[in-house]
């Protein structure tokens, strides 16, 4: 479990094919000991297991499902990534509940600078925007953000100067894909409503069938 409060940016040292997956090695900004072997660390919002740790560098294995669902397959040596270690019991809870289970990718449709702030619109699958609501939470490349606006197939966020400076979102360009994870509470609500619909109609609906987005007020 994570919070979406990025601890720092790391540098990709190696991103090489390994069978159907990818071997990823990252230099972290953390002082040793970075974490314990087998620990969960979020890379651009993706929960990965540390398989090797040495002198501040961490290696991960990325499976084919993760490569298909996220932007990690685009990483190359020299790329910067957002890093967050797993939430510790008793630690201060900022951001929001983040699992590190990315739902899919969104594409930057536009970004507009307003003095030191940036307003960004993202295009995303309609079934994911249906789980979003204005003033709710969204995780973008591992960063916990507040939704400013939502439309079918898209959402808008505002990035403060601090976020622009300490995460990769400050350099993302229009057209680039980002990992998104919708609020886990929204997913549970959708599943509950789908089950209620099944019980009410007795029909062949399944929980996988997306519900129509509710009207935004």
In short:
The protein is an alpha+beta fold and 217 residues long. The chain contains four helices and twelve strands, in the order βββββαβββαβββαβα.
Write down the overall mean pLDDT.
90
CATH architecture of the largest domain: Beta Barrel
Strand content: 35-45%
Task: Evaluate the radius of gyration.
Answer: 18 Å
Instruction: Based on Cα principal axes, name the global outline.
Output: globular
Strands ordered across the widest β-sheet: 1-2-5-4-3-6
* Alpha-beta classification: alpha+beta
Helix content: 10-25%
* Tally of helical runs: 4
Number of strands: 12
- Classified by CATH, the class of the largest domain is Mainly Beta
Unreliable spans? none
Distance between the termini: 31 Å
Multimeric state:
single chain
CATH-defined fold name of the largest domain: Elongation Factor Tu (Ef-tu), domain 3
For the report, how would you describe the main beta sheet? 6 strands, antiparallel, barrel
Fold blueprint:
Blueprint: E1 8-18, E2 21-27, E3 40-43, E4 46-54, E5 57-62, H1 64-69, E6 80-85, E7 104-114, E8 117-123, H2 126-129, E9 137-140, E10 143-151, E11 154-159, H3 161-166, E12 177-182, H4 184-201
């Amino acid at each position: 479990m994570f919070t979406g409060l990025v601890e720092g940016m790391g540098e990709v040292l190696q991103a090489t094919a390994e069978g159907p997956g990818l071997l990823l090695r990252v230099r972290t900004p953390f002082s040793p000991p970075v974490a314990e072997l087998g620990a969960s660390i979020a890379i651009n919002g993706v929960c990965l297991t540390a398989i090797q740790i040495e002198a501040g560098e961490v290696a991960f294995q990325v499976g084919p499902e993760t490569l298909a669902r996220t932007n990690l397959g685009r990483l190359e040596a020299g790329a910067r990534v957002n890093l967050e270690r797993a939430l510790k019991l008793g630690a201060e809870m900022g951001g929001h509940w983040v699992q590190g289970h990315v739902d899919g990718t969104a594409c930057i449709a536009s970004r507009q600078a307003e003095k030191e702030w940036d307003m960004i619109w993202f295009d995303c699958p309609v079934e994911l925007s249906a789980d979003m609501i204005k003033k709710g939470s969204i995780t973008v490349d591992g960063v916990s953000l507040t939704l400013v606006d939502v439309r079918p197939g898209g959402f808008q966020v505002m990035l403060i100067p601090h976020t622009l400076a300490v995460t990769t979102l400050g350099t993302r360009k229009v057209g680039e894909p980002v990992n998104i994870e919708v609020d886990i509470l929204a997913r549970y609500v959708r599943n509950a409503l789908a089950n209620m619909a099944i019980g009410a109609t007795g029909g062949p609906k399944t929980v996988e069938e997306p519900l129509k987005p509710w009207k935004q007020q």
